[in-house]
Amino acid sequence: MQIRIATRADVPAVLTLLADDQISRDRGFGLDEAVVPEAVDAAVWAAFEAIDADDGNELIVAVDGAEVIGTCQLTFIPGLSRNGALRMLIEAVRIDSGRRGQGLGGELIRWTIDRARERGCAIVQLTTDKRRTDAHRFYATLGFEASHEGMKLLL
User: What pTM does this model have?
Assistant: First the structure.
């Protein structure tokens, strides 16, 4: 498996990975992959362009040959707390459902932690839906601690 920053050509495969998830489908994402409303399509491409142009964001893909089998997004956040420490936020972690259980997720997360060190981060943080109990156990095996209660406000 090779891990790298995604290109525009990787976006359709990343969207497929994001849609291959019941929680995402419950939110209305990926219900009908054959029909993507134009406004959604435009928003997705605009989001990719913004991520790609921003040094503080990286869309990551894990590939096996030509196949994208994993993804996540990294955001590097400067802050005044913790003596000005830079932190990295990991979001939207997915491994192809047919490839789970092979250690690929651990390899991807360890790569992101190394990436955080390369960028000078003092903290790596992530959020995971409360319903993802398997993910909670997985992240704990990699050294993450459930130290905070997250909250969201949908606008």
Answer: 0.88
